[in-house]
Amino acid sequence: MWRVQVARAKFDAARLVALGPYQRLTGTAVMADDPADMGQGPDDKPRRHFDDDDEVTRIGKVELLPVKAPKRDRPYFIVLAGSNLGRMYRIEGDEVILGRATSATVRLEDDGVSRNHAKVIMRGDQLWIEDLGSQNGTFINGEKISAQALRDGDKIQVGATTILKFTYHDDLDDRFQQKMYDAALHDGLTKAFNKRHFLERLQVEVAYARRHKTALTLIMLDVDHFKLVNDRYGHLGGDHVLIGLAAIIEKQLRTEDLFARYGGEEFAVLCRGASLGNASVLGERLRQQVELAKFEHGGQVIPVTISLGIAAHSDKVADGATHLVSEADAALYDAKRGGRNRVVARSR
């Protein structure tokens, strides 16, 4: 630990005397050497305006933080391109499978990634990556490989759009990277995914549903009369409602469902593999849970209800993602126009 102690009282006093009576500003000594920077004092004599650049640096006790020498021994993949940009995958265990299958250790949503694309194993004291006979191959730093030892900084491409970086982290790296990832993908207030991530995933999910001929539904919902909530209970009361609402919805969803804040008091739930009927059942459950919940802020109970619009993906339209959002939005508008606090499903 370093300690630096400097007594500056005599120094400041001597400097203030040397500067003159019209160059002394409260708390800080500044130089008045440019007439253009000088204003008029109460006695019509020039006085320089306060400028932070002229502030005298205060020197006190300096203590070094107890930071240990970093030990970068935790292997990770970080997504540099493709879906889930910025996500970290820690490499643990005897074998790590990269692929599109639900059973893959590192699951990558990319049309060009095989179900079991590649694997990472430990050979001696070094990690190796092996291609598992994938359709499109595995590339390291632009070179196609069948098996190769991994080095810190290697760029691994699997599929058409996915690029991973192999690296080692220490504890500080872990926390920093996780915070950056969370900030990029999540809404700061509700902790739901943000609109940008939702729109990126929507494209991926529509492509998946089209390719595999599976169901995909979208629920759009928003808080009824939210402006009145803000007007009556203040913006802090409104924030409290949004945070509580997000927590209620999260508890009702499956792992594969994507929940995002679409904007303001509007939210979206993307349901992979769910039919319009199943999504309608979920929507009604969400509506009931919110209506029964107690939102209390500042000693006041805030009555909250939501309206929901639901639509299903259709293979008959070219731009499936845009059409799905448009249809769900229209259903939400019907719910609002129909009296609010209700669910409207829009059939194809």
Give a description of the structure:
The protein has 348 residues and is an alpha+beta fold. The chain is 30% helix and 28% strand. Strand 1 and strand 2 form a beta hairpin. The longest helix is centred in the last third of the chain and has 27 residues, at 226-252. It starts with 8 loop residues before the first helix and ends with a strand.
**Average predicted confidence as pLDDT:** 84
Beta content comes to 25-35%
Q: Can you tell me the overall shape?
A: flat
Counted beta strands: 22
**Count of helix runs:** 6
Which short descriptors sum up this protein?
single chain, flat, 5-stranded mixed beta sheet, 6-stranded antiparallel beta sheet, 22 strands, alpha+beta, disordered N terminus, 348 residues
Any chance you could write out the topology, listing elements then pairs?
Blueprint: H1 9-19, E1 24-25, E2 28-29, E3 38-40, E4 46-48, E5 74-81, E6 88-90, E7 95-99, E8 106-107, E9 118-123, E10 126-131, E11 138-140, E12 143-145, E13 147-149, E14 155-158, E15 162-169, H2 171-185, H3 195-212, E16 216-223, H4 226-252, E17 258-263, E18 266-272, H5 276-292, E19 295-297, E20 300-302, E21 306-312, H6 320-337, E22 343-346
Parallel strand pairs: 7-8, 21-22
Antiparallel strand pairs: 1-2, 3-4, 5-6, 5-15, 7-9, 9-10, 10-13, 11-12, 11-14, 14-15, 16-18, 16-21, 17-18, 19-20
